[in-house]
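Thread: TolC family protein, structure

OP (GT): Posting the sequence first so everyone is looking at the same thing. Length is 511 residues per the record. Can we get the structure tokens written out before standup tomorrow? I want them in the notebook alongside the other entries.
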Amino acid sequence: MKPTRTPLSRLAAAGAGAALLAVAALPAAAQQTPPVQPPAGSLPVAAPGGPYTLRRAVDVAQQNNLTVRQQQLTTQNTDAILRQSRAALLPSANANATQNWNYGTSVDPLTFQFQDQTIRTNNFSVSSQLTLFSGFQLRNTIKRNVLDYEAGLNDIEKSKNDIALNVASSYLQLVLAQEIVQANQARVNSSQQQVSRTEKLLKAGSVAESNLLDGQAQQASDELNVITAQNQVAFFKLQLAQLLNLNSPTGFEIEVPVLADPDEETVLIGNPDGTYQTAQGLMPEVKAAELRTQSALRTVEIARGTYYPRLTFGGGLFSGYSSSRATPVLTGDSTLTPFPIFAINPATGKPEMVPGVFAGFYQPETRPLPDKFIKQVRSNYGKQLQFTLSIPILNGFQARTNVQRSEIGVKQAELRAEQTRLTLRQNIQQAYADAIAAQRRYSAAKRQTQALSTAYRNAEIRFNNGLLNGTDFNIAKNNLYGAESSMIQAKYEFIFRRKVLEFYEGRPLDL
């Protein structure tokens, strides 16, 4: 019998993202593919003791997932931007201090005199500025950043939903693979018993030797199927351990839940619209898309704020020191300074200097004494208040272009939100259709299995009595095994689709 592999499902559309449910029914050897890489993981951790339930596996995966952690850091960065935008409403205050050396001819920055010497100067200032009006840009920026932060929180939840659905898919793959191992082991036991009976019948001369050879060939095929199924268990266990970011699948076990058969469940009646209405209010990707649309509208208001005047108020304190500044100090000495005497000439009526007659007085002598640092700082102390009004007139149409671009951004955000809702609706519709199909296929496969079981028992009786050759008997046996595999496949596809629908309705993923 040629090894085959029957895929359980197509791409499973799920909540915040599509989760691949590539579960396979394994009646024979299956072609393996490399394990799906987990979407995240920090440093791998050791597997805690005890078997994992689905709920526990989801919790561990969400805790270790690097995509979730990366999104958390991104949201923290958005929160920092929000805090900064709120702080922009506060006045700014800055203190400055400088020290300079001027060599050669230069202008003293405090006395404003030319000096031909080395001058050391210090300048000290404290300034503050407050924006009084800026076209409401600051307040609109805060509102936009609040929306971006809330959207980031929903992005975190979306990342958690993605990993939860991936874990649920891999978990059910592993449960299915383990069940297939048990089914194939039962087939090996049946083949061994059949070979043993055939050997006895051959010794008694009741059957031909070809029947024994056919039975041995079937037993070898069944044993190969067991090995293949066991390899699949190891494969899916590794895949799930990687999603949980564990060091190794060694010692990692899951708790096999007791799952009801699909025909024991209530017949699923498609109501995707009701589920969509519920999911639309619950799914974080929808909320994030709506919040980003509102954020884009705030961006438009921010861009329009550049049309308005900008009014700011500022004030400052300043002082300084110059090494060239000095105060004259009396030395105690004086210098006689002569001055000529003038008198009115009667002839001309004009003042004329009287020859040989002078007047004089003593001028006190002084010497420059450099001013002390503290004295200069106190005497040079000054204050300043300033209002600044900036009125935009023409800036290369930058304001108009920014408004137009932000309006386009609103339309893009609206389209993205609409696409998110459309994808959600389509995923729910597809999940409903697949769940109903799987439930129907299970019922049909179960009836087929029951009919083929009866046919197999009749073929076994005829084979044991030498009325049926080994080839026809093996065909009847493999037909039964194929029907059983289809039934198991349909069962787990239905379970996964139903869990996806429950997830859309706000119920946690659990078995």
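GT: Both are above now. Quick notes for whoever picks this up: The mean pLDDT is 82. The two ends are 36 Å apart (CA to CA).
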